[in-house]
Amino acid sequence: LEPPRQKRELSHIGIAAPRTTRPKQDEWICSSMMEILSTTIRSETLQKCFCWHLPLPATVVAAQLLALAKMNDTFNNPQVFRQTLATVIPRCYDLLSNHFTTASSIETEKVLMVLQDQAWIWVGDNFVAAQMMAFEAPENARPFLYSVTQELLCFENLLRLCGVRDQFSAGDFVQLSLSLSNKLGSRPASPKQLDLAVFIARYLSRLSPEELLSVNKEQLFLPSRECTMHLAKTMTFDDAPWLSAIVSGKGSQHRFVHNDVGNDAAQILGAKSLRDVLSARQNGMVKIPCPKSDALAKMFSERKMCADEDCRVVFDLLEIAEIKGVKQVSIFMDRRTHGSMSILHPCLAQTQNTALIVCFHDKVIEVDELVKLTSPSKFYVSTVAGNGGCGGPGFPRFGSGLCGTFLLSDCPQVLAGSSMLFWDPNGTFFVEGTKDKPSAEGSDGENHLLLADNNISSTEEMAMPAKREGCNQKRKASGRNYGISPEIASQFPDQFEPFFSLPIGIKESLFDCKGKPNGTYYRGTVFRIPLRTKDGPPSAISDRILDDSAITSFLDRLVERIPTSFLFTYNLQNINIHDWLPTESSYRSILRSRISSSPIARRNHLEEMQKNRTWVKDKSKFAKIFKSSWVPERSSYTLQCSNKHGDVENEKVDTYII
User: d(Cα 263, Cα 239) in Å, to the nearest integer?
Assistant: First the structure.
C-alpha cells in the first residue's frame, strides 16, 4: 500500500532538494507535496542538518488530506486503506491543531484557503467537507449531513476554526431534502431515509416565523404516503379523511403528504389543504377584504357600547334589512353544538357551537355590499350623516352595519345567494402557514434535534386555536368567499348543517336546483354569528362573552324591544324570534311580531311627507312670503303591531299614532 505521490522534475533520476524532501516515516502525511527518502534515516544529527526534525508546513499537511480523500474514492481495497488512515488521520489533525495554536493570522488563512469547500474530515468511511458536519446532527442524516464523532471531539478547536458548526441551519435541511429527492428520483425511500425526511419536515415546521421567512420553500421536498419525495408546494395534506378515501387511488391528482409528517407541519411548509383544494375546485374560493381587529376595537371603544346594549347587534342588522327593503326577518338563538369534522377549515370547529342567526327572507345582499358594510372606518362616529336609512341608499345612519356583529363574534358567517362568506379579523380561524411556537422555557434541556412524537400533529390539535394566555403572535386578518353547490355541501356536511337545519328552505334551494336558470341559489341572506366563548381563541376586538344566563337576558331584552322597531320603518313587516335549546329536536318561538295595520297606509303617509319639493327647494325667502306653508293631507297615521309571545294563543296588539 503506497501513499499518494506527485511526480516532480527530478523524480525520474532519483534526486531532490532537501527542502522538498522528508524522511520515510513522514511519507503518509506529505507524499503528495514532497519527495520521500528511499531509506529510513535514524541519525538525529543528519535530520537536524537538513531541518527534517521541524514540523511539516501546515499547507503541506492540508494538501495531503485532500490527496488522501481523492485516493479513498479510487482505491480498490477500502478495508486496508481505512486501517492505515486510522493512524494517519489523527497525526495530520494533530499537526494542524498545533500549527493553529502558534501560527499568525496570515499563515492560518493560507491553510483555511486550502481546506475551504473541500472534503478533508474523515468520518470512518468517507471524507466530507466542514459544511456537511456539525457537533449536533441527526444520525439518520448520513450520507448527506454528519455529526462529529467521538474520535474527533479531541480536535474540537480545529474543527470549529475550519467552519464546523454547533448545528445545521434551516437552509441546510432544505438542501438535504433536495439532495435526498435527487438521489431517490421516483423510487420510494427506505425506512431510514423516510425517517430522515419526516425529521426534516418536523424540524423546519418548529422554526420561528422569522426563521421560516428565510426558508426557500421552492426547493423543499416532503415524503408522500407512497414514500416518494415531491415538492412541498405541489402536495396536499389530508385534513378531510372522510373525503381522501374518495379522491385518492389510481389516477388521483393529489399527492398526499406522509401521515408521519402531520397536517400542521405540512401546512406550515407550503402543502395545500385538501379541504381548500376541493372547495376551491368545486366553485372557487376568493379572498375578500376583512376588517382588522385593532380598527374594530377602536370603533367599539369610541361608541362606548356597554353590556346592556348587546342587542344593538340585532338592531344594526334590522337597519340593514330596512335599507335593503326586507319585509320579513327571522332571528334564531341556536344553542346546539354541531359536528366539527367535515368543515372547511379545522380551526372553524370553534364556531360550531352557540350562534345568533338572523335571516333576511327573499332578499339577497350582494357580496360587494356585504364587504362594504364590514368597513369600520364608515362607523367610527355615531353622528347621523347622509341620506341613508328608511330605504335610502348608502350606509346605515344610526347603526354600525355588519361591524356590530364583531362585538359578539370573532368569525361572522353569511350565506347569501350562491356565496358563503367568512371574516376572521384576529387571524385565528383561517391560519395560513403559521402556528404558535413553543417557548424556550420548559424544554428541560431536551435535544431539539430528536425525532418528534408521532402524536404532535393531529387534526384535533389544529382544531384548537391558540389559548388566550401566552399567545402574542401577530396574525393576519382573513376573509373568504366560498361558492356553494350541492357538491361542496356534500363534501363538508358539518359546515352547512347549522344552516340546513333551519326551517327556511336553504337545503332545498341548494339540492333542488335542477332546471333553475341561476343554478344553486338561495333567495335570502342568513347571518350566522357564532358567540364568543371563554374557552375559545383570544380576541383583540372585544372580551364580550355570553354564557347561558347572559343569553337568556339577551333574548329578554330583544323580546321587549323588537315590537317598537317597526316605528318609522318603511319596509319591515314581520319579525320572529326563536330559541333552539341544545336538548331539543326543534326550536320554540318566543315572539312573533308583525304589522297588523295596512302597510300601504304607512307607506303612503311616509311618501306624502316627502312631497311638495318646490317648497323645500325654494331658497328665496321673499318668494316664500307669498306662498302658504305646505300642510300634509293627513297629520298622523295609526300603526298597529301584533305580538304573540311564546305559546300564548292570543296576540297582543299595540297601537301607535304617529
Answer: 7
Burial class (CB in 10 A: 0-12, 13-18, 19+), 623: exposed
- What's the CA gap between 95 and 29, in Å, rounded? 10
Q: What is the dihedral of CA 159, 163, 164, 169, to 10 degrees?
A: 170
CA distance 561 to 555: 10
Closest Cα partner for 428 from 412, 411, 414, 406? 411
Write down the pLDDT at residue 455.
Answer: 36
Check residue 469 and give its pLDDT.
Answer: 36
Whether 437 contacts 206, CB under 8 Å = yes
Distance CA 27, CA 48 (A): 18
The 3-state DSSP class for residue 304 equals coil
CB 400 within 8 Å of CB 291: no
Model confidence pLDDT, tens digit, residues 178-204: 989 999 998 999 998 898 899 899 989
User: Do 529 and 357 touch, CB atoms closer than 8 A?
Assistant: yes
What is the maximal distance between C-alpha atoms in the chain? 140
- pLDDT, block means (10 residues), the chain with 658 residues: 71 72 86 82 82 86 91 78 88 91 88 91 88 84 84 91 88 89 91 90 87 86 93 88 70 84 90 78 77 88 71 92 92 94 87 96 92 75 41 61 91 94 92 46 36 37 41 70 86 92 88 63 94 87 90 93 86 94 91 86 70 53 58 72 88 86
Identify the pLDDT of residue 618.
Answer: 53
Closest CA to 196 of 130, 260, 148: 260
Residue tagged 358539518 (cell numbers) = 494
User: Which residues are CB-contacts of 204 (< 8 A; sequence separation ≥ 6)?
Assistant: 170, 173, 174, 212, 215, 220, 265, 268, 269
pTM for this entry:
0.63
Burial classification of residue 51, based on how many CB atoms lie within 10 Å of its CB (0-12 exposed, 13-18 middle, 19 or more buried) = exposed
Strand partners, 230: 222
The amino acid that residue 510 corresponds to is: L
Task: Output the nine-digit C-alpha cell for 111.
Answer: 491553510
Question: Is the Cβ–Cβ distance between 407 and 317 less than 8 Å?
Answer: no
> How many alpha carbons fall within 13 Å on the CB side of residue 338?
25
Q: What is the C-alpha separation between 412 and 321, in angstroms, rounded?
A: 17
Treating both helix axes as pointing N-terminal to C-terminal, what angle do 191-205 and 170-184 enclose, rounded to 10 degrees? 150
- For residues 572 and 325, give the distance between their C-alpha atoms in angstroms, rounded to a whole number: 7
> Nine-digit cell at 370?
356585504
**Cell numbers standing for residue 153:** 471531539
The pLDDT value given to residue 514: 58
What is d(CA 422, CA 424) in angstroms, rounded to the nearest whole number? 7
The 3-state secondary structure of 443-478 reads: CCCCCCCCCCCCCCCCHHHHCCCCCCCCCCCCCCCE
Question: What is the rounded CA–CA span in Å between residue 493 and residue 355?
Answer: 18
- Counted residue by residue, the chain has a size of 658
- Each residue's pLDDT tens digit, 203-231: 898 888 888 888 888 889 999 999 999 99
Quote the pLDDT of residue 89: 92
